[in-house]
Amino acid sequence: MSHALETIAAMARRTWTVTWRRPVVLTFSLGQPLVWMLFFGFLFHRFPLAGLPAGTSYIDFLAPGVSAMTVLFGASQAGIGWIRDLQTGFLPRLLNTPASPGAILAGKLLADVVRLLLQAAAVLVLAVLLGADVHLAPAPFAAGVLCLALFAAAFSCLSCAVALRARAQESMATFVHLVNMPLLFTSTALVPHRDMPGWLAAAARVNPLSLTVDAWRGALLLGQTPSPLAVALLALLAAALFLLALGGMRAAASLY
Questions:
Q1: Are 164 and 79 in contact (CB under 8 A)?
Q2: What's the rounded Cα separation, in Å, for the pair 159 and 245?
Q3: Domain containing 156: what range?
Q4: What is the mean pLDDT of each successive set of 10 residues along the chain, which is 256 residues long?
Q5: Which residues contact 188 (CB under 8 A, 6 or more apart)?
Q6: Cβ(153)–Cβ(238) under 8 Å?
Q7: Fewer beta carbons below 10 Å: N end or C end of the chain?
Q8: CA trace torsion 183, 229, 243, 20 (10° rounding)
C-alpha cells in the first residue's frame, strides 16, 4: 500500500511539474472558456430563462456551464503528454518497472483532476466578477465539486486511453474536436432543456456533460444537493474509463 501511495504521489508531482514547465495545454484549456464566458455572457444577457427562479440572469445560468466546460476541454487534452512520453520511451520504461500501472494512472489522474478543478474555480471567480450570483452552501457545493471531479477523471481517462492507442498528436487533436464540440452543443451548458428542440433535449438528457452541469448548476444556483443517481452514474463512468485507460497502458507496455 505504501509503495502504491508513493507511486501516486511521484506521478502527481511529475505531472504538475510538466504542466508548469509546458503550460500550453493549461493556457488553451483555460483561455477558450474564459472567452466564451465573456462573449456569450454579454451576447445573451437578455436571454429569457424558463424553469429557474425569478431574477436569475443568463450569466448566472452560464457560469456553472462554462465552469464545467473548462473541465471538459482540459480533460480531453490530458493524454497529450503521454504521447510525448511514449515517443521518448519514458512511459514504456516506467510501465516495465515494479510500479503498479494502476498507481501510475491514479497519480496522473490526481494531478489532472486537481488542475481541472482549479481551472473551473478560476472561471467561476471570473463569472462572479462579471456579475454572476452563486450560492456556496457547504453540502451542495461539496457534492457538486465531487461531480465535477468524477467527470474530470472520466474524460481524462478517455483522453489517456485514446492517446495510448493513437500515439500521435495529430490524432489527439482530431479526438479533442470530435468529442468537445458535440458534447458541448448537445448539453445544457449553454441552454436549458426547455429551450431546446425535442431531439436535442433528448440527446442532452443522456449527455454526461449535462449530468455534470445540472448537478453543478443546481448546487450553485439553487443550493440543491446532486441526486445520488447522478453521482453514481458519473462514478460508474469514471470507473469504466479508468479500466479502459489501464488496459491501454498494459497494451502499450507489451509493445516495448
A1: yes
A2: 8
A3: 2-254
A4: 83 87 68 76 69 74 91 89 84 84 92 93 87 87 96 95 83 81 89 84 91 94 91 96 91 69
A5: 65, 204, 207, 210, 213, 214, 217
A6: yes
A7: N
A8: 60
